[in-house]
Known about the structure:
Elements: E1 4-9, H1 16-25, E2 31-37, H2 48-59, E3 65-70, H3 74-80, E4 85-90, H4 93-109, E5 114-119, H5 129-137, H6 148-157
Parallel strand pairs: 1-2, 1-4, 2-3, 4-5
This protein binds coenzyme A.
Amino acid sequence: MGKIAVYPGSFDPVTNGHCDVVQRSLNLFDKIIIAVATNGTKDPLFTIEERLEMLKETFKEIPGVEVDSFDGLLVEYAAERRADAILRGLRAVSDFEHEFQMALMNRKLNRTVETVFLMTGLRWIFISSSIIKEAARFGGDTRGMVPDNVSQKLREKFGKA
Ligand code: COA
């Protein structure tokens, strides 16, 4: 069996930065499971179903990518899915502290799952789901920063379709 990575997150919504991390990771892993956390602490714009649908549409033609959701502890989900690693993207130094803390907590909870960090492409360094939502809320054009289906969904959500 090939190498499997779980790529967890809120994906509210998925951005081109996330897509870039997935593309890069496919050079290292045979299968990527994009896992949407259902019990996140953030107040989401899109429902879990909407986020899963957008992700499935985005990756439908990319072999080796599965879209799923999970609740509870990430390390338990990763073990259940027999993942070799948890995948996270790093954009800037500001991500490091939070990611470092999460990776170490996850290691403490389960010593057998490693976290692998990939650097997001430079052109996506400034993008986060929040900044995309902020721009879209006030009518900004998000095309080229998120997949086309996501950009359309954002316009619908904010009544700009
Ligand atoms: N490109 C663009 N944006 C990116 C990015 C990339 N490559 N990588 C991260 N981001 C953004 C996200 O869009 C998100 O932006 P936002 O804050 O504006 O929404 C932010 O960076 C990071 O959020 P996210 O990827 O959703 O991760 P998170 O830090 O909120 O953590 C889980 C989410 C699911 C990984 C984490 O909460 C978890 O594991 N939950 C399960 C419970 C558990 O086991 N916790 C850990 C042990 S206690």
